[in-house]
Amino acid sequence: MIIEVKDLVKAYSDTTVVNIQSLHVAAGETIGLVGNNGAGKTTLFRMLLDLVRPTDGVVTSKSIPVAHNDAWKYYTGSHLDEGFLIDYLTPEEYFKFIGDLHGLSTGDIQERLQPFMDLFNGEILQQRKYIRDFSKGNQKKVGIAAAALSHPELLILDEPFANLDPSSQIRLKNLLRSLHEQHGMTLLISSHDLSHVTEVCERIVILEKGQIVQDMQTTQDTLQALEAYFTV
Ligand SMILES: Nc1ncnc2c1ncn2[C@@H]1O[C@H](COP(=O)(O)OP(=O)(O)OP(=O)(O)O)[C@@H](O)[C@H]1O
């Protein structure tokens, strides 16, 4: 298992925001995490990435607790929010920084960014602008590309479609599919867009008040089932 979660609890004072008995992510799976505002999606991702320590329970990656070992960092890419970026760099400088961490040459970086050119829409590279001066949507594109640059075995993205214009959302959907198909990347993404997430992900997990209430393989009926579930 690339990720295994057991009896994972996160509580702030006396409010429990995540409470998951068990969640297994196998290598090569594409999983969409859905749930209303405050359901605990981001908190779960932060615990998977050792950014937040659980109140109870453990997260293991390839059987090793993420809190006690760095091995997972070499095969895990992630972009949760713009806080992950280095604002005073240009996108080129940031990609070089991330590429250096993974021993990629300038040529490797250029080659690996090639599939992102449609998504970048001519607005990311050679702009002579720092990341801080880009729009939220374009910052997100930089973050997603940087997270995927090392071709990680596991890619974790929090709301990758948010703040993107409709054309960019469609381009991102195709890109994520092709990262999975061409590199066997395991994807774990959260989204409020039920249609996009069911198109990209073969498995959908619904989180409600910190708990997993449904975990299903995506079929042609899943979108309808999700829409019914979220209709109040
Ligand atoms: N540092 C913190 N201190 C106190 N409460 C927190 C903290 N971080 C998160 N929470 C609470 O945990 C709950 C889950 O938040 P989280 O951001 O994980 O939800 P989410 O599913 O990602 O929501 P959204 O869809 O709105 O992004 C919320 O009620 C939030 O207020």
From TrEMBL:
Name one molecular function that GO assigns to this entry.
ATP binding
**PROSITE patterns, per the entry:** ABC_TRANSPORTER_1, ABC_TRANSPORTER_2
Q: Which residues form a coiled coil?
A: none
Superkingdom, taxonomy of origin: Bacteria
List, for all copies, the residue spans of the domain called ABC transporter: 3-232
Q: What InterPro entries does UniProt report for this protein, alphabetically? A: AAA+_ATPase, ABC_transporter-like_ATP-bd, ABC_transporter-like_CS, ABC_Transporter_VariousFunc, P-loop_NTPase
Q: Which PANTHER family match?
A: ABC TRANSPORTER ATP-BINDING PROTEIN ALBC-RELATED
* Entry protein name: ATP-binding protein
Q: Which organism is it from?
A: Pontibacter amylolyticus
Q: Source organism lineage?
A: Bacteria, Pseudomonadati, Bacteroidota, Cytophagia, Cytophagales
